[in-house]
Design goal:
mainly alpha; 3 helices
Length: about 90
């Protein structure tokens, strides 16, 4: 079981699609935590679930962008320079 967990890789696209599908199903299906026949309260739980799902989606997108930028920054060469302007020797770190 431990080996299976090590091979798990988080995929933000799949997670986003899964949450979006779950939100859509929860909003459409008549089976809710609080039935929609309770006017006001029944729609409130739908609104809470949709809001929480939307917040997750936004955080998921931001984290995916940050992760992609970190991968791109790993490819950038970094240089060290001396403080003396006359030398102007740059060395790759």
């Amino acid at each position: 079981m431990k080996n299976e967990m090590k091979s798990f890789e988080y995929n933000p696209v799949k997670a986003g699609l899964l949450v979006a599908g779950a939100m859509l199903l929860y909003a459409i299906l008549p089976i809710d935590l609080i039935p929609d026949v309770a006017v006001g309260i029944g729609q409130l739980d739908d609104a809470i679930v949709l809001t929480a799902g939307t917040i997750f989606e936004v955080v998921n997108i931001v984290n995916a962008i940050k992760q992609k930028r970190q991968v791109n920054m790993a490819d950038v060469k970094r240089y060290d320079y001396s403080e003396d302007a006359e030398d102007a020797d740059y060395e790759e770190i």
